[in-house]
Amino acid sequence: MSSIVIMLFVGVVALVLYAIKFHGELSVDNTDWGVFGDYIGGTLNPLISGFAIYWIIKTYNLQKKELFESRTILQGQSEALKKQNIESSFFQLMSLFNDLINGLTVSGRPVELPDDKVTPWNFEGTEVNKQCFEKLHNILINGYFHEHKRGNYTIELTSGQIVYEFCNIKGDKIGEDSLPLTIEKLNNDYDYFYQEFGHLIGHYFRTLFHIIKFIDNSLFDDEQKKQYINLVRAQLSKYELGLLFYNSINPRYGLCKFFPLIHKYGLLKHLEDEVLVNPKDRDLWIALSKTIQVNP
Question: Among 106, 192, 209, 244, whose CB has the most other CB atoms within 10 angstroms?
């Protein structure tokens, strides 16, 4: 608007000056009008061209600014949409995880032995969903780990032990042949347990692993990742944590990939001594946490 006013003002001044100089009389001579046209054109054309260039530049800058703002808004919407999709996928995974748990059943073997001969496998009825973990944990601890529970073999650690006392790391591979006898025995016993009940807990641990990995690979910042991990951890019973502990230290099932994520996000933060065969088994976890890389 100000540019138009300036152009009109300059035009009026040019006309007034022309009229004063040439007495303001209208000529009937075409030559005079041609000279007048040249005067007006020579006076106003540079000004009009200057303003035209100014408006072109200003329009370009305005469009550039609007384009940048639109792009920023679209990027923000895109990031928000991505996070919404991640949240939706997370809760779908959690729903799948809970459905998996709700579908678990563990049936006992007939109790036909004297009381002093009854084993963890012998119990009446069927356990379902979350209750299965307590029963499976009892079978693992009192059935497969009974020697360790009786103290027939123990874990002895000293403060400077290094990774090679537990495992040989070559890339992401871990060799079981380098495990000390006590750890090897624990893992062998767990292998037998997994062969018997892997059809129940294998899918459970794989799903849990992929949920934690999904959070770890998401676009969320560290604080948001911790919040989602807390949601997952809040769903786990003490017996699930106990089973997860022994699954995660086993090179065949959890040590290479799941252990680093469990350690990174403190998934076993609320592990109780009650669900361990021996409270000193924590020493094994501490030692392994110093030797296994956090990122799988």
Answer: 244
